[in-house]
Structures are given as C-alpha cells and as structure tokens.
Amino acid sequence: MRTYDLTPLYRATVGFDRMADLLDRVLTQDSAASTYPPYNIEKTADGSYRISIAVAGFGADELSVEQREQELVVAARKAQEDGAPIYLHRGIATRAFEKRFQLADHVRVTGAMHENGMLHVDLLHEVPEALKPRQIAITRVAPHLIEGQTA
C-alpha cells in the first residue's frame, strides 16, 4: 500500500486543516473494512441528499442516527433475545455496526426513516445568507465632482 505525506500541504496552507485531515483519513483507511452494511448516497434535489443503508434484520429501536458537528454516525446493535432461534443457515447478517459519513459545512440531517429493511437518512445543504453570492450596486460619480468642479 502506498503512503502519502501531506506535510507540504500543512506547510503551504492556512485554514485547510480539516480538508487535509479528511484526505489523510481517506488515504489511510482500510477500504475492505467499510463494506458492511451496503449503502447508497443519492442526490434527491438541488442541495438535498439521501443516504440509504440496508439494515435487514434490525428494528427501528435497534438503530441510532446522530449528527456530531461535521459527521453523521449511524449505528446498530441487535437486542439480546431470550430463546434465540437455532439457525440451519444464517445469510442475513445482523452484526453490530457503526458507519460514519463526513458532512460538508452547512449540511444538516433533516430526518431518518426505517422501512422495508432500509434506513433512509435525509440531508439538506443550507448555505447561510451571509455566504451566498450577492449583487453589488455600482454607483456613478456625480458629474460636478469630476476634475475638481464644485457645485
């Protein structure tokens, strides 16, 4: 496996620490460890997204969805069953998991829904008014102020 040294990036930039940390985390993370459970990320509208996670075998009370600053954490833990069945074949994995998604600035979770073995988490990217582009009015200089003229 290749390793990348991001030290020059830290030396040459100011305020991009979070981006460099994210790149470092992605490049060093083991890709085989994050395949369970399977999930989709879709864009549902302009600025709206949905993460759909296959959670077959888990009830809504065994799932948790939490937003921590710029991170979405989805976890599942199977409740202990008294008199658990004896399986001849067990193809539906119900092992505990914790899935983490890095969120961009100004992305918030608007809701979560569990239906038909799927957990849907809806996200909305809201740019604050202060950060949106704004039109700047161009004013004209009064003709009497040009070339030292007085009124």
Question: Which terms would index this structure?
Answer:
Immunoglobulin-like, 2 helices, four-stranded antiparallel sheet, mainly beta, 12% helix, elongated, 32% strand, 151 residues, three-stranded antiparallel sheet
Verbal overview:
With 151 residues, the chain is mostly beta strands. The chain has 2 domains: 34 residues, no CATH class; 94 residues, Immunoglobulin-like (Sandwich). It starts with 6 loop residues before the first helix and ends in a 26-residue tail after the last strand. The model has no long low-confidence stretch (mean pLDDT 83).
Distance between the termini: 76 Å
Structural class assignment: mainly beta
- Helical content stands at 10-25%
Could you spell the SSE succession in H and E letters? HHEEEEEEE
Shape: elongated
| Strands in their spatial order, largest beta sheet | 1-2-7-6
Mean pLDDT: 83
Low-pLDDT windows of residues: none
Q: What is the CATH first-level class name of the largest domain?
A: Mainly Beta
Give a summary of the structure in a few sentences:
The chain is mainly β. It has 2 helices and 7 strands; from the N terminus they run ααβββββββ.
